[in-house]
Specification:
Helix content: 25-40%
Distance between the termini: 23 Å
CATH class: Alpha Beta
CATH topology: Glutaredoxin
CATH architecture: 3-Layer(aba) Sandwich
Number of domains: 1
CATH superfamily: Glutaredoxin
Structural class: alpha+beta
Number of helices: 3
Low-confidence stretches: 103-107
Order of helices and strands: HHEEEHEE
Radius of gyration: 14 Å
Strand content: 5-15%
Mean pLDDT: 84
Length: 107
């Protein structure tokens, strides 16, 4: 299985696990993957990401435009994906403000 398919499979497993929880216990409600089409340029620009390298983000735009990036700049892998969502659920990530971030190289 190639890298992209492994990541999509890991994301799907994580989404299914999260959706199986009672609604009040779900920390992330919507999961998606994307290429460099559609809204990706705007998302990268407003969260301080540049380039085209795979990146992890959690968007909470309805909550005052918040978003979260992994605490460490690590390669996106199935393990880093699970750890990222766990860190978010455990309140270990610092929120950024949509449109107010300095660029972080991700190419």
């Amino acid at each position: 299985m190639n890298r992209a398919k492994k990541l999509i499979a890991a994301l799907t497993d994580l989404a299914e696990t999260e959706k199986a929880k009672p609604e009040g216990e779900q920390k992330v409600k919507c999961f998606f993957t994307a290429t460099n089409d559609g809204p990706i340029d705007q998302i990268r620009s407003n969260t301080g990401l540049t380039g085209t390298k795979a990146a992890l983000l959690i968007l909470e735009l309805a909550k005052s435009g918040k978003f979260y990036k992994p605490a460490k700049d690590a390669e996106v892998t199935p393990d880093s994906l699970v750890a990222f969502v766990k860190d978010f659920a455990d309140g270990k990530l610092q929120a950024g403000k949509w449109g107010e971030q300095e660029s972080t190289k991700a190419s």
